[in-house]
């Protein structure tokens, strides 16, 4: 009896251990179903986790997309501040806090002046005082001076041969010969043959004094004429004799070459052009090509 007792105890123990084993080991179908449920549960947890991650990520992207325009606004604000920092002080320095003013007002308030102290007095300029500046002008001036010298030499040689010519050509006061100026305001200067050279008579007056044709005739020269400056030369015929009269140093000629003028007609204005030092009429007379004393000729014929 005692020998069988341990075997019974072992059997009871084995039965108890097999009764305490999990039911899953005794039922394989139930074990697979539990595994599937566990898998679905895990998958649901993963899905819920992804959804939470996505929801958490959306505000982050929204924040990033919001930061881009915010950054642009900040950059533009910095640029505007830099421009204001540079421009406003310069504008303030330029304006000086004063109201706008016109150019005329600025010029009136801040005129610029130049004062030059000199004892030299101003002098009027005329064409005769112009200086030659180019080679062509120099050559032209030299040619004019040479021509004037030839005329002077020829006149000087002929003056004595013409001195014996009869100056009485018409009755004084007949109107065929007229005084070239209103002699009431005229002063007689250097006369004919003065210094053995002068070919005419100088009648001094104010600039712009009218000058008249001494006789009727045709204008041969009207304009710049060598050292005579602006001059007029008239060719006339008086009592069958050829008479040429010259009016030199005018400030302006009022006739043209080829014009026919009457005795006493205005032909120019007194001046000081050419080789001249004062306003005057240089008057010359040639009869038959020979020089005569022009003042004596006027006295004999104009009366």
Q: The CATH topology of the largest domain is what?
A: Glucose Permease (Domain IIA)
How many distinct folded domains? 2
Mean pLDDT reading: 75
What does the main sheet amount to?
A: 10 strands, antiparallel
- Portion of residues in beta strands equals 15-25%
End-to-end C-alpha gap: 208 Å
Radius of gyration: 64 Å
Q: Total helix count? A: 6
Gross morphology: rod-shaped
Total DSSP E strands: 10
Q: Which parts are unreliable, with pLDDT below 50 for 5 consecutive residues or more? A: 1-26, 157-161
Task: List SSEs in N-to-C order.
Answer: HHHHHEEEEEEEEEEH
Which bin fits the share of residues in helices? 40-55%
Output the structural class.
alpha+beta
CATH architecture title of the largest domain: Distorted Sandwich
Q: Please give the CATH class of the largest domain.
A: Mainly Beta
CATH homologous superfamily of the largest domain, by name?
Answer: Glucose Permease (Domain IIA)
Please give a structural write-up.
With 303 residues, the chain is an alpha+beta fold. The chain folds into two domains: 23-90; 132-301, Glucose Permease (Domain IIA). Helix content is 43%, strand content 19%. It contains six helices and ten strands; from the N terminus they run αααααββββββββββα. Strands 1, 2, 3, 4, 5, 6, 7, 8, 9 and 10 form a ten-stranded antiparallel β-sheet that branches. β9 (280-287) and β10 (290-292) form a beta hairpin. The longest helix is centred in the first third of the chain and has 68 residues, at 28-95. The radius of gyration is 64 Å and the shape is rod-shaped.
